[in-house]
Design brief:
Helices cover about 45% and strands about 15% of the residues. It is α/β, with parallel strands linked by helices. The longest helix is centred in the middle third of the chain and has 21 residues.
Length: about 350
């Protein structure tokens, strides 16, 4: 029987109920956090304006947890850019998991004002109400995009570079605001620098879909895969279960000394896009001999993309006892199986 610090905290949550606020609750990460917390007998308030999240994600959570646990969830449809809405959502909350944001580099390049409004102004609202209502801790999603043009690999928390996109700028600003609120207002804040998160419920459709759901959806539908660049771009792919782990550890661990800390959240290893393609192809074909996946096409590099990205996870491992829980290929297979089972719902044919 496992007895890691994460397992201990989960057992504690089964016995002790807190009230949590998840912003962006209908999104990929938000809905997975919701499912995990409800299964741990927690009370959850979710805030979402459904600009990027999907009600089908919440329906899926409801099916997974059952009606009794679902009754511990309150959904508020609203916008983090509205201070009154944020104030209503945070009443009586112990912990805040802030994941509402415009999370796409290409989208931010096309519409920097919209991205800034949501990612910076919205985050400032969350900081303000968290301070006013004295939450125990605010955990927020930042991004590996803040490393920008820093060519060092792996990426270490205290050495970032110049941002390469408006999205990266907003995440850097979030970290600066969080530092100020921790120092000036004594707010306990932790930023989680996510690398390339993947797993069930990640949207495979639309112009701004992330690479794993997009390629998986296209492989299922029999469409050709296009790789931006030469295929040698590297990414650190982090399974959603490890993001859940990082959020729970960050919220409850008492080993964090400073009021504001930032931690990388990744696997600690990277693969090229060519390797990713081959791994997904193996996982897809493993689901059914009926799937045929052709070799990829190659195109131009995408503006704003970081060339190489690997997380150094020593800091979060040492401070929070974080440790990736699945081998990458296992996580890919679980994810692909999930999309194959729901192909008619999630993939345009």
């Amino acid at each position: 029987m496992t007895n890691t610090p994460y397992d201990v905290l989960k057992e504690r949550l089964k016995r002790e109920t807190f009230k949590w606020l998840i912003t962006g609750v209908a999104g990929f990460i938000g809905s997975n956090l919701l499912e995990a917390l409800l299964k741990l007998n927690q009370k959850v308030v979710g805030l979402d304006n459904f600009s990027a999240g999907h009600r089908v994600n919440l329906d899926d959570v409801r099916r997974c947890v059952g009606e009794e646990l679902w009754s511990n969830f309150l959904l508020i449809q609203g916008d983090i850019c509205n201070l009154d809405t944020c104030t209503s959502a945070i009443q009586g909350v112990d912990y805040v998991l802030h994941h509402a944001a415009i999370g796409s580099v290409p989208w931010s390049i096309e519409d920097p004002i919209f991205t800034n409004t949501n990612n910076v102004n919205g985050f400032l609202n969350i900081l303000l109400v968290a301070r006013e209502y004295k939450v125990k801790r605010l955990v927020y999603a930042t991004s590996s995009a803040v490393y920008g043009d820093n060519i060092e690999s792996p990426k270490v928390e205290d050495r970032i570079g110049r941002p390469l996109s408006p999205y990266a700028v907003t995440k850097h600003i979030n970290e600066l605001y969080a530092e100020v609120f921790a120092n000036v207002y004594n707010l306990s804040v932790i930023g989680l620098r996510y690398f390339n998160v993947f797993g069930p419920r990640q949207d495979p459709l639309g112009a701004y879909a992330a690479v794993i759901p997009k390629w998986t959806g296209e492989m299922i539908a029999g469409r050709p895969i296009k790789i931006h660049g030469d295929g040698e771009t590297t990414r650190d792919f982090c399974y959603i279960e490890d993001v859940i782990q990082a959020n729970i550890l960050s919220s409850l661990a008492n080993v964090v000394r400073e009021k504001h800390q930032v931690f990388n959240v990744g696997s600690g290893e990277s693969i090229t896009l060519k390797e990713l393609f081959n791994m997904l192809r193996v996982a897809i074909i493993g689901c059914s001999s009926g799937f045929q996946v052709e070799d990829p096409e190659y195109g131009e590099f995408r503006i704003g993309d970081v060339r190489h990205s690997t997380a150094e996870i020593s800091k979060i491992s040492q401070n929070l006892k974080y440790s990736p829980r699945l081998v990458r290929q296992q996580a890919f297979q679980i994810t692909v199986d999930w999309y194959v089972q729901r192909a008619t719902m999630y993939v345009e044919c």
